[in-house]
Amino acid sequence: MYWKPEIEILPRAQLHTLQIQRLQESLARAAQSPYYGTLFRKQGIRPESIRTIDDVRRLPFTTKDDLRSNFPYGFLTVPKQGAVRLHCSSGTTGNPTVIFHDNHDLASWADLVARSLYCAGLRDTDVFQNICGYGLFTGGLGFQYGAERLGALVIPAAAGNTRRQIKLMQDFGTTAIHTIPSYLFRLHSAFVELGLDPQRDTSLRLFVIGAEPHTEAQRQRIEALFGVRAFNSYGLSEMNGPGVAFECEHQNGLHVWEDAFLTEIIDPDTLQPVPDGEEGELVFTTLDRHAMPLIRYRTRDLTRFIPGECPCGRTHRRLDRISGRTDDMFIIKGCNVFPMQIEKVLMRFAEVGTDYVIELETIDGNDEITVKIELQKAWFTGDIEALEKLSRRIANEVRDEILVTPGVRLVEPGSLPKSEGKAVRVIDCRKS
């Protein structure tokens, strides 16, 4: 039932003791880096003075801008020859954010991913097909090493080439898949084109999905299409990548591994903690990373702690699914809008397909929003009156959610551009 029961069901009091011990060790390591060493001296921070969980609030936040400003080695706590791998973002708009790992960090990361996959139901008898990018992206190697550590047979399929993915599933009896949720809809379309039924013609039984925000309704659509349970995962490259938080068999929140990450949820405006159950910005402090510990890293992801205990018995607290990011929010006609608010509305309509895009543009000096939506094939009949009626219904329900009336364009299935990576949901063409 548990991968590491001595950690996963550790009583809360003992878990807090472990966190304090590891926090002090992480602060001592962080002080060896050029960035934190200088910052701690300026602010008079001593690791031994942090004696309780609440004391972490006395420590400064770390942001993505800090990582970029101190690129490439400003956060490294070991000599370069002590680091054995790095992962980083694309850096297409400036310096990338880079994370270094030593051998301890890679072993710890593999254990966390193995624990996470076991939590969702993966076992050493499974064939695990990893359909995501390898290389600098953390999802490929992160899941690869974690699934291998658990003992599963791993197919490093990488992203794309959908027909080959299906052949691999059939040839080797794939039972579990990791990929982004938007890709699964394209995968199902390929099954249909080939005249195959994923429930009848494969051995699939478990999906791990993550890397892009998705609603509960989207997850339920995936499960209905494939007849497979799909488990939500959460990670970010600054905290390793995958293996930060994962759903268990009850699918009622993501267990965040508190022996490895000290987790806070703060009000992004006041920077003060919010009560359990209230949404705010997720903040992490690494507790078991040697080469590059991070202190109070602001993720910009919005979520909440789910109150109460999980029936699975794990004592690590649960996070709700990510509802959006503070930096994904856009302002239209004076209203703050998150893309996930619009997706939540669209998924209520049986007529709506799997892809949509939100376009923002300036028309005659006014900012306008248009939502382009693919319809299910069965509903795209060419009945103009029915399409206009559906457009009005969708526009009205979106308006009720975001307080702005959008333009709605209903388009044929498959007509919106597709990406091999994360789905692009917002295109902002407004004049600055």
TrEMBL record:
Keywords: Ligase, Nucleotide-binding, Phosphopantetheine, Phosphoprotein. Gene3D superfamilies: 3.30.300.30, N-terminal domain of ligase-like. Residues 334-430 form the AMP-dependent ligase C-terminal domain. InterPro entries: Adenylate-forming_Reductase, AMP-bd_C_sf, AMP-dep_Lig_C, AMP-dep_synth/lig_dom, ANL_N_sf, PA_CoA_ligase. Pathway: Aromatic compound metabolism; phenylacetate degradation. SUPFAM superfamilies: Acetyl-CoA synthetase-like (SSF56801). Residues 89-284 form the AMP-dependent synthetase/ligase domain. Catalyzes the activation of phenylacetic acid (PA) to phenylacetyl-CoA (PA-CoA). This is Phenylacetate-coenzyme A ligase.
